[in-house]
């Protein structure tokens, strides 16, 4: 099994899809070729890197960890295995609902200002309900302003900051939001395994685990949508 010539240290809050893409770009390879080399068929649900479970993680990560020269625990940290997948055995309904309605599988949202500061994809950008950037107080971008394509998080990408049409996401104009609108995204950051830095709070939502928070919010948003 060939290893990549150039290796990079993952950022603490980096997504696995984004990390593979970043490594592929640095090594002059196609991200899709790395998935194929690691026996990760991205057209099959079991190889969606957000759907890693106890049953599939060894199959999916053995070759990948060798190619990327990273231990499997590091790769799992960049997926949602620790927050979601490992609980599938005894909480299957909740986890399946979150994977279906709460996590992007083939695309992502981005903060152009974050990308301009450091060019990597944040893991929590793949959460449907993570719509704002707490750091910059702006809405995340979900489509290219020029061609209107959704922003994909894997595949034939040759740049993390540029669309297939040539538009640079870092040049996108962002829409500012009130600070209250960033509270939920900030809460997701706090509850995420990879970025958690919890402090005492009177807000009972901070006592929840991420999977419980996402399930509750998905339940309420879908219920409200029925009556609109």
Sequence-ordered SSE layout with sheet pairings:
Layout: H1 16-26, H2 31-37, H3 57-68, H4 72-78, H5 92-101, H6 112-117, E1 132-133, E2 138-139, H7 183-191, H8 210-226
Antiparallel strand pairs: 1-2
Helix pairs in contact: 5-8
At a glance:
With 228 residues, the protein is mainly alpha-helical.
Derived from helix and strand composition plus strand pairing, the structural class reads mainly alpha
The helicity comes to 25-40%
Strand order of the largest sheet: 1-2
Mind summarizing the main beta sheet? Answer: 2 strands, antiparallel
Poorly predicted ranges (pLDDT <50, ≥5 residues)? none
> N-to-C terminal Cα separation, in Å?
54 Å
Shape: globular
Radius of gyration: 17 Å
N-to-C series of helices and strands = HHHHHHEEHH
The count of DSSP E runs of length 2 or more, i.e. the number of strands, is: 2
List the total number of helices.
8
Mean pLDDT across the residues is 84
What percentage of amino acids are in beta strands? under 5%
């Amino acid at each position: 099994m060939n290893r990549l010539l150039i290796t990079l240290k993952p950022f603490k809050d980096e997504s696995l899809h984004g990390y593979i893409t970043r490594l592929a770009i640095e090594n002059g390879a196609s991200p899709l070729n790395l998935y194929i080399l690691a026996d990760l068929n991205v057209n099959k649900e079991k190889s969606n890197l957000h759907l890693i479970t106890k049953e599939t993680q060894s199959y999916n990560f053995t070759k990948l960890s060798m190619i990327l020269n990273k231990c499997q625990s590091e790769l799992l940290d960049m997926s949602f295995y620790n927050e979601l997948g490992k609980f599938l055995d005894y909480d299957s309904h909740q986890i399946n609902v979150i994977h279906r309605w709460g996590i992007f599988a083939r695309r992502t949202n981005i903060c152009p200002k974050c990308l301009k500061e450091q060019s990597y994809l944040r893991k929590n950008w793949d959460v449907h309900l993570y719509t704002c950037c707490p750091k910059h107080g702006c809405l995340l971008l979900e489509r290219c302003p020029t061609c209107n394509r959704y922003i994909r998080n894997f595949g034939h990408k040759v740049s993390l900051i540029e669309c297939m049409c040539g538009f640079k996401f870092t040049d996108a104009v962002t829409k500012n939001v009130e600070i209250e609108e960033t509270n939920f995204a900030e809460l997701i950051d706090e509850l995420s395994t990879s970025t958690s830095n919890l402090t005492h709070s009177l807000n009972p939502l901070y006592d929840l685990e991420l999977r419980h928070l996402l399930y509750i919010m998905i339940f309420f948003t879908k219920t409200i949508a029925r009556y609109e």
